[in-house]
Amino acid sequence: MNVHSAEIVISAVSPAQYPESDLPEIALAGRSNVGKSSFINTLINRKNLARTSSKPGKTQTLNFYLIEEALHFVDVPGYGYAKVSKTERAKWGKMIETYLAQREQLRAVVSLVDLRHAPSQEDIQMYQFLKYYEIPVIVVATKADKIPRGKWNKHESVIKKALNFDGTDEFILFSSVTKKGKEEAWQAIERAIN
């Protein structure tokens, strides 16, 4: 998809605030510093529609972005950030769970993991949660530019093994620096919404 228009529509914390529209939605989930904002910005050819933050864990709402009047990207709060209190984390967890499990417009979740590291406990839980609810998953391994090309396969297999990866899901190596995986990500998203 060639994106010319993208705007944030609303930041929601409960279903009452979700946009009233039948447009398909693609949610983006991942750890606080996995590069979610950079992924969104790369896909929509913008520098800073999705704010990248020096303070991880800043997104505390579900941020709905309208893309080309055709679909919504839904940026869900990053998880696994230690400086947030347990009660805050529980609140986010509930909010994210409600959205993922109940939203009919949701077509797939882009689950972002860091190619450099084995998936965290939260990454694994997120993947299992999505599989449990039978939500299509596109796993995007970010920061591929930080690893020598010759080691990509090794890192990919570590991630797939830890997630108990389902071969019917998409797996994409991605870099917001080199734009590697941008086309594949769009293709996967377009397959999910059509």
Outline:
This protein has helices at residues 36-43, 86-102, 121-132, 152-163, 182-193, and strands at residues 6-12, 25-30, 62-67, 71-75, 106-114, 137-142, 170-173. It is α/β, with parallel strands linked by helices and 194 residues long.
**What general outline do the C-alpha atoms trace?**
globular
Number of strands: 7
Global structural class? alpha/beta
What's the mean pLDDT score?
Answer: 90
Treating each run of at least 4 consecutive H or I residues as one helix, how many helices?
5
Which residues sit in consecutive blocks of at least 5 with pLDDT less than 50?
none
As laid out across the biggest beta sheet, the strand order is: 1-3-4-2-5-6-7
Give the helices and strands as they follow along the chain.
Answer: EEHEEHEHEHEH
Largest sheet, if any? 7 strands, mixed
Hey, roughly how much beta strand do the residues contain?
15-25%
Over the alpha carbons, how many angstroms does the gyration radius reach?
A: 15 Å
Give the helix proportion (percent range).
25-40%
Query: N-to-C terminal Cα separation, in Å?
Result: 13 Å
